[in-house]
Design a protein that fits this description.
The structure is a single chain. The protein is α+β, with helices and mostly antiparallel strands. The chain has 8 helices and 14 strands. Among the domains are: about 90 residues, Beta Barrel (OB fold (Dihydrolipoamide Acetyltransferase, E2P)); about 130 residues, Transcription Regulator spoIIAA. A hairpin with a 2-residue loop joins β11 and β12.
Length: about 325
Protein backbone atom coordinates (compact mmCIF):
# COMPACT_ATOMS: atom_id res chain seq x y z
CA UNK A 1 0.00 0.00 0.00
CA UNK A 2 1.25 3.47 -0.86
CA UNK A 3 1.44 5.95 1.97
CA UNK A 4 3.64 8.43 3.77
CA UNK A 5 3.91 12.12 4.60
CA UNK A 6 7.65 12.76 4.13
CA UNK A 7 8.49 15.68 1.85
CA UNK A 8 11.30 16.03 -0.68
CA UNK A 9 12.24 19.33 -2.36
CA UNK A 10 14.07 19.51 -5.69
CA UNK A 11 16.15 22.58 -6.61
CA UNK A 12 15.41 23.73 -10.18
CA UNK A 13 18.00 26.52 -10.15
CA UNK A 14 21.15 24.41 -10.49
CA UNK A 15 21.41 24.38 -14.30
CA UNK A 16 18.18 22.42 -14.79
CA UNK A 17 14.74 23.27 -16.14
CA UNK A 18 11.25 22.61 -14.88
CA UNK A 19 9.85 19.46 -16.61
CA UNK A 20 7.13 20.73 -18.94
CA UNK A 21 4.58 18.10 -17.94
CA UNK A 22 4.65 18.48 -14.14
CA UNK A 23 1.45 19.52 -12.38
CA UNK A 24 0.36 19.31 -8.73
CA UNK A 25 -1.43 16.04 -7.99
CA UNK A 26 0.59 13.90 -10.40
CA UNK A 27 2.31 10.69 -9.33
CA UNK A 28 5.95 10.60 -10.50
CA UNK A 29 8.85 8.18 -10.34
CA UNK A 30 12.10 9.47 -8.79
CA UNK A 31 15.50 7.71 -8.69
CA UNK A 32 18.34 8.33 -6.22
CA UNK A 33 21.61 9.00 -8.06
CA UNK A 34 23.78 10.08 -5.12
CA UNK A 35 23.00 10.17 -1.40
CA UNK A 36 24.10 12.92 1.04
CA UNK A 37 23.50 13.41 4.74
CA UNK A 38 20.53 15.77 4.32
CA UNK A 39 19.49 14.80 0.82
CA UNK A 40 21.26 13.96 -2.42
CA UNK A 41 21.01 14.03 -6.21
CA UNK A 42 17.93 12.49 -7.83
CA UNK A 43 16.71 11.88 -11.36
CA UNK A 44 13.24 12.97 -12.46
CA UNK A 45 12.15 12.90 -16.09
CA UNK A 46 15.74 12.40 -17.30
CA UNK A 47 17.11 15.42 -15.40
CA UNK A 48 19.27 15.55 -12.29
CA UNK A 49 18.15 17.69 -9.37
CA UNK A 50 19.70 18.47 -5.96
CA UNK A 51 17.22 17.14 -3.41
CA UNK A 52 16.57 18.00 0.21
CA UNK A 53 14.73 15.66 2.54
CA UNK A 54 14.84 12.03 3.63
CA UNK A 55 15.74 9.80 0.69
CA UNK A 56 16.25 6.03 0.37
CA UNK A 57 19.71 5.12 1.59
CA UNK A 58 21.01 3.40 -1.56
CA UNK A 59 21.89 4.96 -4.91
CA UNK A 60 19.72 3.51 -7.65
CA UNK A 61 16.66 3.18 -5.41
CA UNK A 62 13.44 4.37 -7.03
CA UNK A 63 10.39 5.69 -5.25
CA UNK A 64 7.01 7.22 -6.05
CA UNK A 65 6.05 10.77 -5.14
CA UNK A 66 2.99 12.98 -5.41
CA UNK A 67 3.76 16.42 -6.90
CA UNK A 68 2.56 18.98 -4.36
CA UNK A 69 3.93 22.16 -5.94
CA UNK A 70 5.90 23.49 -8.91
CA UNK A 71 7.22 26.89 -7.88
CA UNK A 72 9.65 28.54 -10.35
CA UNK A 73 12.74 27.30 -8.49
CA UNK A 74 11.48 24.37 -6.39
CA UNK A 75 9.57 21.15 -7.06
CA UNK A 76 7.79 20.01 -3.89
CA UNK A 77 7.13 16.28 -3.62
CA UNK A 78 5.43 14.04 -1.07
CA UNK A 79 7.31 10.77 -0.89
CA UNK A 80 5.31 7.54 -1.13
CA UNK A 81 6.32 3.88 -1.42
CA UNK A 82 9.37 2.32 -3.09
CA UNK A 83 9.22 1.30 -6.75
CA UNK A 84 10.63 -2.20 -6.68
CA UNK A 85 9.72 -4.94 -9.21
CA UNK A 86 5.95 -5.10 -9.30
CA UNK A 87 5.60 -2.59 -6.47
CA UNK A 88 3.61 -0.48 -6.17
CA UNK A 89 0.99 -2.03 -8.38
CA UNK A 90 -1.78 -0.33 -10.27
CA UNK A 91 -4.18 -1.03 -7.42
CA UNK A 92 -1.92 0.87 -5.01
CA UNK A 93 -1.76 3.80 -7.42
CA UNK A 94 -5.55 3.92 -7.64
CA UNK A 95 -5.71 4.14 -3.85
CA UNK A 96 -3.08 6.90 -3.76
CA UNK A 97 -5.03 8.92 -6.34
CA UNK A 98 -8.36 8.28 -4.60
CA UNK A 99 -9.78 6.36 -7.57
CA UNK A 100 -12.13 3.36 -7.44
CA UNK A 101 -10.63 -0.12 -8.09
CA UNK A 102 -12.28 -0.50 -11.49
CA UNK A 103 -10.70 -2.67 -14.18
CA UNK A 104 -10.77 -0.01 -16.91
CA UNK A 105 -9.02 2.49 -14.63
CA UNK A 106 -6.47 -0.15 -13.67
CA UNK A 107 -5.59 -0.82 -17.32
CA UNK A 108 -5.08 2.89 -17.98
CA UNK A 109 -2.82 3.18 -14.91
CA UNK A 110 -0.81 0.14 -16.01
CA UNK A 111 -0.19 1.75 -19.40
CA UNK A 112 1.01 4.98 -17.74
CA UNK A 113 3.29 2.95 -15.46
CA UNK A 114 4.60 0.96 -18.40
CA UNK A 115 6.04 4.17 -19.85
CA UNK A 116 6.94 5.56 -16.41
CA UNK A 117 4.84 8.63 -16.99
CA UNK A 118 3.49 10.93 -14.30
CA UNK A 119 0.04 9.79 -13.23
CA UNK A 120 -2.66 12.42 -13.16
CA UNK A 121 -6.08 11.68 -11.67
CA UNK A 122 -7.99 13.84 -14.14
CA UNK A 123 -6.20 12.39 -17.18
CA UNK A 124 -6.86 8.82 -16.03
CA UNK A 125 -10.57 9.49 -15.58
CA UNK A 126 -10.84 11.26 -18.95
CA UNK A 127 -9.07 8.45 -20.78
CA UNK A 128 -11.21 5.78 -19.12
CA UNK A 129 -14.35 7.70 -20.15
CA UNK A 130 -13.11 7.96 -23.76
CA UNK A 131 -12.40 4.22 -23.83
CA UNK A 132 -15.93 3.38 -22.71
CA UNK A 133 -17.26 5.20 -25.77
CA UNK A 134 -15.31 2.95 -28.18
CA UNK A 135 -16.04 -0.56 -29.46
CA UNK A 136 -14.30 -3.17 -27.31
CA UNK A 137 -12.06 -4.26 -30.21
CA UNK A 138 -10.60 -0.74 -30.54
CA UNK A 139 -9.92 0.01 -26.89
CA UNK A 140 -6.52 -1.63 -26.49
CA UNK A 141 -4.94 0.16 -29.46
CA UNK A 142 -6.48 3.49 -28.42
CA UNK A 143 -5.18 3.14 -24.85
CA UNK A 144 -1.67 2.21 -26.03
CA UNK A 145 -1.39 5.04 -28.54
CA UNK A 146 -3.04 7.75 -26.43
CA UNK A 147 -0.74 7.08 -23.45
CA UNK A 148 2.42 6.73 -25.55
CA UNK A 149 1.73 10.09 -27.19
CA UNK A 150 2.05 11.66 -23.76
CA UNK A 151 5.77 10.82 -23.91
CA UNK A 152 6.01 13.28 -26.83
CA UNK A 153 5.93 17.02 -26.26
CA UNK A 154 3.28 17.69 -28.91
CA UNK A 155 0.53 20.33 -28.92
CA UNK A 156 -2.98 18.91 -28.75
CA UNK A 157 -3.84 19.28 -32.45
CA UNK A 158 -0.54 17.66 -33.50
CA UNK A 159 -1.03 14.81 -31.03
CA UNK A 160 -4.50 14.18 -32.48
CA UNK A 161 -3.06 14.04 -36.00
CA UNK A 162 -0.36 11.55 -34.95
CA UNK A 163 -2.98 9.48 -33.09
CA UNK A 164 -5.12 9.37 -36.24
CA UNK A 165 -2.12 8.21 -38.25
CA UNK A 166 -1.05 5.52 -35.77
CA UNK A 167 -4.58 4.17 -35.41
CA UNK A 168 -5.17 4.16 -39.16
CA UNK A 169 -8.18 6.48 -39.04
CA UNK A 170 -9.04 8.87 -41.91
CA UNK A 171 -9.44 11.94 -39.68
CA UNK A 172 -11.85 14.71 -40.66
CA UNK A 173 -11.43 14.25 -44.42
CA UNK A 174 -13.50 11.94 -46.60
CA UNK A 175 -12.08 8.43 -46.42
CA UNK A 176 -10.89 8.25 -50.02
CA UNK A 177 -7.43 7.15 -51.01
CA UNK A 178 -6.07 10.66 -51.44
CA UNK A 179 -7.24 11.97 -48.07
CA UNK A 180 -5.98 8.86 -46.28
CA UNK A 181 -2.55 9.39 -47.84
CA UNK A 182 -2.59 13.05 -46.79
CA UNK A 183 -3.55 12.18 -43.23
CA UNK A 184 -0.78 9.56 -43.03
CA UNK A 185 1.82 11.97 -44.43
CA UNK A 186 0.89 14.69 -41.93
CA UNK A 187 0.91 12.23 -39.02
CA UNK A 188 4.32 10.90 -40.03
CA UNK A 189 5.72 14.41 -40.37
CA UNK A 190 4.50 15.49 -36.93
CA UNK A 191 5.72 12.27 -35.31
CA UNK A 192 9.16 12.68 -36.85
CA UNK A 193 9.37 16.29 -35.68
CA UNK A 194 8.33 15.54 -32.08
CA UNK A 195 10.77 17.40 -29.84
CA UNK A 196 10.82 14.78 -27.10
CA UNK A 197 10.62 11.06 -27.69
CA UNK A 198 9.74 8.29 -25.25
CA UNK A 199 12.27 7.85 -22.43
CA UNK A 200 15.54 6.78 -24.03
CA UNK A 201 13.88 6.12 -27.39
CA UNK A 202 13.68 7.99 -30.69
CA UNK A 203 11.16 6.96 -33.38
CA UNK A 204 11.00 7.94 -37.05
CA UNK A 205 8.21 6.73 -39.39
CA UNK A 206 8.16 6.21 -43.15
CA UNK A 207 5.58 4.97 -45.65
CA UNK A 208 6.36 1.68 -47.41
CA UNK A 209 5.13 0.82 -50.89
CA UNK A 210 6.04 -2.55 -52.39
CA UNK A 211 4.74 -4.65 -55.28
CA UNK A 212 2.66 -7.00 -53.13
CA UNK A 213 2.31 -5.05 -49.89
CA UNK A 214 1.95 -1.57 -48.43
CA UNK A 215 2.47 -0.28 -44.95
CA UNK A 216 4.77 1.67 -42.67
CA UNK A 217 8.32 1.41 -41.34
CA UNK A 218 9.19 2.70 -37.87
CA UNK A 219 12.89 3.16 -37.15
CA UNK A 220 13.42 2.87 -33.40
CA UNK A 221 16.70 3.80 -31.72
CA UNK A 222 16.99 2.96 -28.04
CA UNK A 223 20.14 4.30 -26.44
CA UNK A 224 22.18 2.40 -23.91
CA UNK A 225 22.12 3.68 -20.32
CA UNK A 226 24.63 6.50 -20.61
CA UNK A 227 26.18 5.83 -24.02
CA UNK A 228 25.09 8.37 -26.61
CA UNK A 229 26.96 6.74 -29.49
CA UNK A 230 25.79 3.18 -29.02
CA UNK A 231 22.39 1.63 -28.75
CA UNK A 232 19.96 -0.88 -30.17
CA UNK A 233 18.43 -0.09 -33.56
CA UNK A 234 15.17 -1.71 -34.53
CA UNK A 235 12.94 -1.59 -37.56
CA UNK A 236 9.25 -2.20 -36.91
CA UNK A 237 7.51 -2.90 -40.21
CA UNK A 238 3.75 -3.10 -40.63
CA UNK A 239 2.58 -4.69 -43.87
CA UNK A 240 -0.88 -5.15 -45.32
CA UNK A 241 -0.66 -8.06 -47.77
CA UNK A 242 -3.17 -9.82 -49.99
CA UNK A 243 -2.03 -13.34 -49.09
CA UNK A 244 -1.31 -13.05 -45.35
CA UNK A 245 -3.31 -10.05 -44.19
CA UNK A 246 -1.73 -7.79 -41.56
CA UNK A 247 1.89 -8.64 -40.65
CA UNK A 248 4.26 -6.94 -38.19
CA UNK A 249 7.99 -7.59 -38.55
CA UNK A 250 10.54 -6.51 -35.92
CA UNK A 251 14.20 -6.44 -36.94
CA UNK A 252 16.43 -5.87 -33.89
CA UNK A 253 19.88 -4.80 -35.04
CA UNK A 254 23.11 -4.24 -33.12
CA UNK A 255 26.09 -4.02 -35.42
CA UNK A 256 25.67 -6.93 -37.82
CA UNK A 257 23.77 -9.09 -35.31
CA UNK A 258 20.10 -9.37 -36.15
CA UNK A 259 17.08 -10.94 -34.45
CA UNK A 260 13.74 -11.21 -36.21
CA UNK A 261 10.19 -11.46 -34.86
CA UNK A 262 7.15 -11.79 -37.12
CA UNK A 263 3.64 -11.23 -35.74
CA UNK A 264 0.76 -12.45 -37.89
CA UNK A 265 -2.80 -13.74 -37.81
CA UNK A 266 -2.85 -17.26 -36.29
CA UNK A 267 -4.41 -18.67 -39.46
CA UNK A 268 -1.43 -17.44 -41.50
CA UNK A 269 1.34 -18.65 -39.19
CA UNK A 270 2.14 -21.83 -41.17
CA UNK A 271 2.53 -19.85 -44.39
CA UNK A 272 4.92 -17.43 -42.69
CA UNK A 273 6.96 -20.22 -41.10
CA UNK A 274 7.51 -21.84 -44.50
CA UNK A 275 8.96 -18.55 -45.76
CA UNK A 276 11.37 -18.08 -42.83
CA UNK A 277 14.34 -20.12 -44.23
CA UNK A 278 14.39 -18.04 -47.43
CA UNK A 279 14.25 -14.83 -45.38
CA UNK A 280 17.15 -15.98 -43.20
CA UNK A 281 19.22 -16.82 -46.28
CA UNK A 282 18.59 -13.39 -47.79
CA UNK A 283 19.57 -11.63 -44.57
CA UNK A 284 22.72 -13.75 -44.22
CA UNK A 285 23.62 -12.96 -47.84
CA UNK A 286 23.35 -9.29 -46.92
CA UNK A 287 26.06 -9.70 -44.27
CA UNK A 288 23.89 -10.09 -41.16
CA UNK A 289 24.29 -12.74 -38.49
CA UNK A 290 20.74 -13.86 -37.82
CA UNK A 291 20.17 -14.97 -34.23
CA UNK A 292 16.77 -16.55 -34.57
CA UNK A 293 13.60 -15.77 -36.50
CA UNK A 294 10.50 -16.21 -34.37
CA UNK A 295 6.95 -16.36 -35.73
CA UNK A 296 4.39 -15.13 -33.21
CA UNK A 297 0.80 -16.02 -34.16
CA UNK A 298 -1.04 -13.25 -32.36
CA UNK A 299 -2.70 -9.93 -33.06
CA UNK A 300 -0.77 -6.68 -32.48
CA UNK A 301 -3.09 -3.87 -31.37
CA UNK A 302 -0.75 -1.02 -32.37
CA UNK A 303 2.88 -0.20 -33.11
CA UNK A 304 3.25 1.00 -29.52
CA UNK A 305 3.43 -2.64 -28.40
CA UNK A 306 6.60 -3.07 -30.45
CA UNK A 307 8.24 0.37 -30.22
CA UNK A 308 10.16 -0.41 -27.06
CA UNK A 309 10.36 -2.31 -23.84
CA UNK A 310 10.12 0.58 -21.38
CA UNK A 311 9.64 -1.67 -18.34
CA UNK A 312 13.35 -2.50 -18.40
CA UNK A 313 14.69 0.81 -19.66
CA UNK A 314 16.11 3.54 -17.45
CA UNK A 315 13.85 6.54 -16.91
CA UNK A 316 15.80 9.13 -18.90
CA UNK A 317 14.32 11.63 -21.34
CA UNK A 318 16.00 12.07 -24.71
CA UNK A 319 15.69 15.52 -26.31
CA UNK A 320 15.90 14.98 -30.06
CA UNK A 321 14.62 16.64 -33.21
CA UNK A 322 14.44 14.44 -36.31
Amino acid sequence: MLGGVERVSLDVRAGTRMPWYLRPGQLVLVEVVERFLQGGIVSLGGQLFPARGRLPTEAGARFWCIVEGTAPEVISLRRLGPAGPGSPGASDVLVALDLPPEEDLKKVVQEFMRWRLPLDRREILEMAAALRGLPVAEREAFRQVRVWLKTLNLPEDAAQAVETYLLGRPGDEQADEGSLAGTAARGQLLLNRAAEAAPGTAVVAFALLARQAAGDVYVVWQKDNETEQDGALRFVIHLSTESCGSIWVVLALRGTDLAVEIFCEPTRADIIRRAVPALQEQLAAGGYRVHGCQVCPRRVASVVELVGRPATAGYAALDVTV
